[in-house]
Amino acid sequence: MGVNCSSCSCANRENELKTELEILENQTTATARSKSKAKSEIPHDLLQKLKKYTPRIIKIQAMWRGHQDRKLVSHLRKKQRMNGKYFTAEESRETILGKQSGIPEREDRPPYRFKSGAVYVGQWKGGFRDGYGIQTWPDGARYEGQWKDNKAHGKGKFWHVDGDIYDGEWKDDKANGKGTYKQANGAMYEGEWKDDIQDGFGKESWVDGSKYEGYYKAGKKHGFGTYIWKEGSKYTGQWIDNKINGKGTYTWYDGRQYEGDWLNGTMHGRGFYAWKDGRKYEGEYQNDKKHGYGVYLWVDGRKYEGYWKNGKQHGEGWLMTPDGARRKGEWKDGKRARWIDV
């Protein structure tokens, strides 16, 4: 149960984080050469600590991938295959003893044992289970609720043999409408269903504290939704086919935030990225990296306006200092190659 988080490439953001360290170092040097009186807002000792702890930050972000095995849709598909022995057509045919004369009235009858070993106790209409009833199977599975025309239909509750429970609306022997599915491990989905699969609006939660609230289609997150990870990171925005796609905002547990375009779980298109210490970037992204034209602003007022490639300054750009001085230059792979006289 959960999001296909491997598609979001959060682990790949280690490149983005490492690039920020390079930008801090390189631009401090470039600014000094431009004779600005401003000092780097990141002291040398802190910069070294950032380098030291970067792998740990990456490891925490990589937890996203740990959710990929928690997909309720695959869990339910497996249950559907297992459930082939429940609500069977053979059981339905067994109780239909030919044509009914007139319209039968609903009535209570003694317990009925099917050839399969399942036992039904409840109401009937002729040869059809109809009304309120309880059916138990030899392996311990049990359904308690409403029936119509020999099928689970209406409000009902089903206990799986492994401890999972579905409680909600049914139609034609399947979860249809609104209902709650609780797994034995504590994970839970509450929301809309179609033919035993999540479809519509719903809420999912996991034992570790992670949760999702939003829309589903055919068992996958699709439409607008919010996902919160156990360490506090959060994404709110659009999803397509279980992947972050479209417009959305991702907020990291450490205060960083990106708001903009996404493609298959990566920052891709135009966006705005802000750091907790006040640094900002606004511009183009490609595959989680700054790529194209963008503006990078430091806390002390320094600013770079120009082109980027694979997360690093690359091409022509302007470097501005807090005192208003502007200087044009050319960058290659994140390092200033030369100043350009204008």
TrEMBL record:
Alphabetized InterPro entries for the sequence: IQ_motif_EF-hand-BS, MORN
Record-linked SMART domains: MORN (SM00698)
Entry keyword annotation includes Repeat: yes
Source taxon at top rank: Eukaryota
Keywords: Repeat
This protein's name: MORN repeat protein
Species of origin: Blepharisma stoltei
Higher taxonomy: Eukaryota, Sar, Alveolata, Ciliophora, Postciliodesmatophora
